[in-house]
Amino acid sequence: xxxxxxAALSYSNPLTSNSxxxxxYLKKEWATHYHIKHTIVIKGYIHTLTLTPKNPNTHLGxxxxxxxxxxxxxxxxxxxxxxSRWKAAADQLNETLTxxxxxxxxxxxxxxFNFAIDPLDRTGPSRGETIEFKEALxxxxxxxxxxxxxQPNHTYYHNHEGNTSKLDRAYCxxxxxxx
Length: 179
Hints:
Distance between the termini: 33 Å
Structural class: alpha+beta
Order of helices and strands: HEEHEEEHEHEEEEH
Number of helices: 5
Oligomer: single chain
Radius of gyration: 17 Å
C-alpha cells in the first residue's frame, strides 16, 4: 500500500483530540483532468474534495465527502446523555448540508459513521439512534441525491462482547440522476 501511495495526491484532515485524522488519496494523473479543491468542513471529522473537470465533455464532476461521525456509546448512560450524543452526530451530518450539490455530477460519501440503522446492521443491542439523527441522515441523503451502497458485511468487531456492527458506510449519487 505504501508504494502505491507514493504515486498519489494526499489530502488530509488533521488530528484532533477525539479523532485520528483522515486522508483522501487520488491518483496523481487525476490532476491533469480536474481542478481539485480540498475543504475541511469540521476539523478532524469531515472533509471534502471537489473535482471540477477541466473538460466537462469528457469527465464528470465529482465530490468526495469523507466523514468520521463521532458517537461513542457508553454502557448504562442516562437517556439525556444518549440523546445529546446522537444530537451531536446529527449536527455533524447537518453540517454537510452547507455544501452545495451543484455542479456535482457524482457524489461519493464514505466514512466511519458509527451507527446502525437497520437491525440487521448489528448483532448486539441497539445503541439508541434517535429520530433526530435518522432525520439528519435522510436530509443528507436527499440533499446529495444519494443512496447507500449495499454491502452486507459488518465492519466493527467488539472482542469482549462478541458483537459486530456495520458502522463504515458508503453513499453514492443515484445513478439515474447522473446518466
